[in-house]
Amino acid sequence: MGAGKTGKARTEAGAEAAVLEMALHVRRGGFHLDIECSFASSWTVIFGPSGAGKSTLLRVLAGLELAESSRRQSVRVTLDGETLTDSAGRIGLKPGHRKTSLVSQQPALFPHLSVEANVGYGLKALDRPARLRRVAEMLELVDGSGLKDRRPADLSGGEAQRIALARALAPRPRLLLLDEPLSALDGVASDALLLCLQGWARESRTQVVMATHDASDALASGAEVALLHDGRMAALGPAAEVLAAERVRLLSRLGFVEKPGAPKPTI
Amino acid sequence: MDWQALALTLKLATVTTAILLAVAVPLAAWLVLGRSRWLAAVEALAALPLVLPPTVLGFFLLVLLGTRTALGRGIAGLLGHPLAFSFAGLVVGSVIYSLPFAVQPLVAGFAAVDPALVDAGRLLGAGPVRLITSLLLPLARRSLVAAAVLTFLHTMGEFGVVLMLGGDIPGATRTLSIVLYNQVENFDYAAANRTAAILLGLSAAALAAIYFSGRGLSRRGLSGRGLSGQRTNGRGQNGQGQDGSRRGGSRA
Description:
Chain A has 267 residues and is an alpha/beta fold. Chain A has helices spanning 54-62, 115-120, 128-141, 157-169, 187-204, 215-220, 239-242, 244-253, and strands at residues 9-10, 16-17, 20-28, 31-39, 43-47, 74-79, 82-86, 91-92, 100-103, 175-179, 207-212, 224-229, 232-238. Chain A has a domain at 16-95 and 211-254: 3-Layer(aba) Sandwich (Rossmann fold), CATH 3.40.50. In chain A, strand 3 and strand 4 form a beta hairpin. Chain B contains 14 helices and no strands. In chain B, helix 1 (3-33) crosses helix 8 (141-156). Chain B has helices at residues 3-33, 39-51, 54-65, 70-79, 87-111, 115-123, 128-139, 141-156, 160-166, 176-185, 189-219, 224-228, 233-240, 248-251.
């Protein structure tokens, strides 16, 4: 909008990615979320155990959690130099007006609407033919073209999550927030969908922030990883560095034992 | 049989129900979705007519809308007659008196809609109006029917407010319950029986309609979850859950 697009960064691949900057101090009962950092990678994984604050962080980024500014609470989020939330300046773009989509663990499909109407819900600005085209395109992306006339009640857990993903992607967000969206899919389907999602994000230049407590998901995406612990950012960097300990743990469980001096396995 | 009184009663109940639904749907949605710290006070105020004696409410309105106050004189000047002792005055009284019967079923129904669905709608760009028309009302359809029927019946049977505010003017303010009262006062028990039977029959038929429509809708499988209003866990969990800000947090 009014703000200039100043915060461009160049990733190693040379593609331009938006910079998501945040300074959050949020109190939720006894839980404190204190995070100041910026995500410059086009795909950032937030990794941490349950209760580390991943969901709260994503909800704040999506604009669903509004913290009233006070001595102990403040929220500032900017994407590409544009302010999405600034509690001190009383700026808070509404969830639907920040070109941000959030897919959570719970698909939350509208039970009274068909799959097609669900995916098209966020496309009110488009005329009918364009909307139907976009819906078909999104359903194809998540391999759900055959489901378009079904009701959410008739979908399996995995199908519902794929439709929820299609619904979130349909308005072409600039920032896609994923809160363990693949939890109901089995390993193979989850890997396939993750791969296709990565391709889509690269093509459409969407910045993705994905929360997971699954180290293999985090490592598989090969992205930048933010390690979240107890409401604080413990580390931020390439997956191989930040998750070195997790990687060793996973490998040893698979039977690879790292010996000092031996060449490292290339998984 | 006083057909004029029956027609007037039905007219009053219809007009009151129409006005109240137009007022109560946005009010209930605001109470459920809003974050303002004043919501508790507004909710209490909306429930006040439930416990206020109808004669007290009728008396206050009689004074307020009569020619004793500036407001009453202003309205009288505008309409050409005072609002008290007129059909329009009865409508005002009925709307206030029946407000809780429209608001409370809607609040319960809207609050039973999963907050995650409302969040999803917000994220996809829906404003308050679209949230109400595309999500809350379709998912709480039974509550809307219940609110309409309860409001209608409650208005049909009201007595205290009507007597205090409207008096007993045939064709303008004489409703069936006033007729019934007059018949009993005149020891005309046969006529009183017929009038009471009409009121009883209308109430029973309307309630039966609510319960049958509810069963029919959920049997059709049209998302029995949303229509039955049984899933009240949405509200309860939200109060303590990780996203306690939506409803629970705003009150704290």
